[in-house]
Amino acid sequence: RQNMLFSATLEGYCIREFATRVLDDPFEVRLGTGDDADEKLPENLALRAYYAAGDQQKVKILLQLLSTVTGRAIVFVKTRDRIQKVHSSLRRAGISCATLQGELSQTERNAALRRFKESEARVLIATDVAARGLDLPEVATVYNFDMPGNATIFVHRAGRTARAGESGVAVCLVAADQLELLERIERY
Fold first, then answer.
1. Which of 10, 33, 43, 185 is deepest in the core (most CB within 10 A)?
2. Does 26 score more than 70 pLDDT?
3. d(Cα 96, Cα 87) in Å, to the nearest integer?
């Protein structure tokens, strides 16, 4: 019998402890060093930023962009509460949405992802739980309604589009207090 364990990361005590319990004399294969230096944006990615005075203006910009751009999109927000606010605004405008956050059961997550993959929902509104580890094909645009906390998270969010040689767009909706963060991400 052969046991194999595949993981995007082996960081953290619990994962490594689990691996030692289920694997005998394992052979470990790592791709990259696992540090921030390995994080790169996709080659065919276009980046855009829009300044917004506040959340109401962010919603207006997002609605305008979604009405002019075709294809599936992911809108990233910071918290579950923000998901509900953005979801309500988009639904009122007639845009079909699914939501994804960490507190959902696996059945609820699968249902949301199925709706998005099968184009029942054109927009997926998500926290950073969707920033890595999910295979979401044909995502045309990633919107950062809320800016990520650091450049590494930005790279993972932006990496949901422009995959496998396709092109894509990552958009940041930036408030005045986030301009410095945008500059740090640009330098990164």
1. 185
2. yes
3. 9
| Confidence (pLDDT) at 9 | 62
Residue 72, φ and ψ in degrees, nearest 5: -75, 150
Label residue 157 left, alpha or beta by phi (over 0 means left) and psi (-120 to 50 means alpha): alpha
Q: Tell me: the pLDDT tens digits for 109-160?
A: 999 999 999 999 999 999 988 887 787 888 999 999 999 988 889 998 998 8
Q: Which helix (H) or strand (E) holds 35?
A: none
Q: Which 3 state secondary structure label does DSSP give 98?
A: strand
All residues at 6 or more sequence positions from 45 whose CB lies less than 8 Å from its CB, including other chains = 158, 161, 162, 167, 168, 169, 170
pTM of the entire predicted model: 0.79
Question: Which residue type does 162 have?
Answer: A
